[in-house]
Amino acid sequence: MPSIDKTKQALESMFITGWGSTTEISHDNVFFDDIIVDEFVSMKFINYTSKNVNIGGALVKRKRHTGVLSIKIFTKQHIGTGVGYGYVTQITDFMDNKQQTNLFTGVSDVRRLGEDDDGWFGLIVDIPYISDEV
Which of 53, 74, 90, 117 could form a disulfide with 64 if both were Cys (CB 3.0 to 4.6 A apart)? Predict the structure, then answer.
């Protein structure tokens, strides 16, 4: 039943609920002032493909959407990686392998964003999803 927009809303809600008040969250295309925080995460919904699929014996046609909810973790530079990877563990604990009505998450991919010129150390957690729009 989730359209692309409903899928986005459901994934973002799942993340916001699980993350709680751990750090501030920067939302896609919304102003965020990273000068006033020591750590934060940013959230971006990325839909890769949408295609028609047939499900079950009655051949129920659905639109299947696949993509990732990409979470970037930003911590201060030169303090080690422990805080960042601790956040990775926290995120994967509440986002991996979850199931809602016609929405499923898989096992997250984690990679290093590295250090950028603005003074942040970064990691990226890509949470894959599949959603079926009936």
Answer: 53
